[in-house]
Design brief:
This protein has no helices and 10 strands. With 92 residues, the protein is an all-beta fold. The protein has a 4-stranded antiparallel β-sheet with strand order 3-4-5-6, with no helix packed on it.
Length: 92
C-alpha cells in the first residue's frame, strides 16, 4: 500500500504485515524483495521480515545462483540470500 510516496506491506486482511515504512518495495526474486528506506537498500523475505539489513548504497536482484551484487562505502561485492559476503574464485 502506498501513502504519501511511502510503502507499507499489508496482509490480505488489511493489517500491517511489517512495522516498517519504505520508500520502495521491489518484486520478489528467489523469495527476496529489494526495499529502500532513506537512500539505503536491503531485502525482505516473503514473511515481510528484513533478512538483509537496509545498509547498502545499491543492490541488484538475486540471480539464479542465489547471489546479488551490492555496493557499500564504494566497494562492490556479492552476497548470498542470507546476506553473507560471497568470495568468488578467480577463474582466469
Amino acid at each position: 500500500m502506498c501513502h504519501n510516496k511511502k510503502w507499507r506491506l499489508k496482509t490480505r486482511y488489511g493489517t500491517n504485515a511489517s512495522r516498517y515504512v519504505f520508500d520502495y518495495i521491489g518484486d520478489f526474486h528467489l523469495s527476496r524483495a529489494i526495499v529502500n528506506r532513506e537512500n539505503k537498500f536491503g531485502f525482505l523475505d516473503r514473511n515481510c521480515k528484513i533478512v538483509i539489513p537496509i545498509i547498502y548504497d545499491n543492490v541488484s536482484i538475486f540471480d539464479s545462483n542465489g547471489m546479488a551484487k551490492v555496493s557499500l562505502d564504494g566497494r562492490e561485492f556479492f552476497i548470498d540470500r542470507e546476506g553473507s559476503k560471497v568470495i568468488l574464485d578467480n577463474l582466469s
